[in-house]
Specification:
The protein is an all-alpha fold. The chain contains 14 helices and no strands. 73% of the residues lie in helices and 0% in strands. The longest helix is centred in the N-terminal third of the chain and has 52 residues.
Length: 300
Amino acid sequence: MASAVYNSRLSDSLQAKVTRRRQERISKGMIYALLVSGAFIFMLPLILMMSTSLKSYTEINRYPPTFLPEQVVPTNYTEAWSFPNTMFPRWTFNTVFIIVAVVPGVVLTSSLCAYGFARLKFPGRNLWFTLTLASIMLPSQVTLIPLYILFHKLGWLNSFAPLIVPAWFGGGALNIFLLRQFFMQIPRHLDEAAIIDGAGHLRIWWSIYLPLARPALISVALLTVLFIWNDFLGPMIYLTTPDNFTLALGLNIFRSYFTQVPRNDYIMAISTLMVLPMIVMFLVAQRYIVQGFVTSGLKG
């Protein structure tokens, strides 16, 4: 009798475990299905852009439209890149030059400001940090006219100076905030040990904090690259000659050539070439980006 009861309970327990595992598999399958569906929805514009860039002119204007190209036309990329009255190699060089000149300034100066807010004690530190964060809410259009007047008086218009020099003075409030939060996670006994060895604050910042904050610094650098690569307003305001244009301005000029006869195949080809470097950059450095944001935390 006891053996029958034991076997019955064991059977019920095994059945419950099987049922529980089946429910877990179903729930995980539904979650994965939702994630895949959401990823496809977000990827759909990119897929359509790349698909259109490989279609022929007649296929693009066909109705009903096709999702994938029936005949792949890779020459759209070369023809668009070398289109008359365009300077895509020059515009690419200008954009890369600004990135190379700006990123070190943003990383160094924002990390230096963040170190001061995180580790130094000075009168009004919290007030200054609050004002720094408040500047994030300030629209860039508010300071546009004063900055334009300043750069005009300095003789910097139609040069890269207005796009490069300000990056070496603070690096941006958001970057300071992210790095400051990361620095708050570093144990203070490292500072104390360095001070005992005779190191000053600049040496501590350079030799201890910057190496430990590599994920956060890489995140700040990549965000800066993304901003410069896509920046349209700044170059449009300060640059006037086509030789100094960036890719964002060049793409807008290229698009204006096809107002009468649309060539979406060329436009999508150039757009794909402009997007792909940022996608590759994210795929290569996504581990550092996630780690940089996760470890930044919210410690105050």
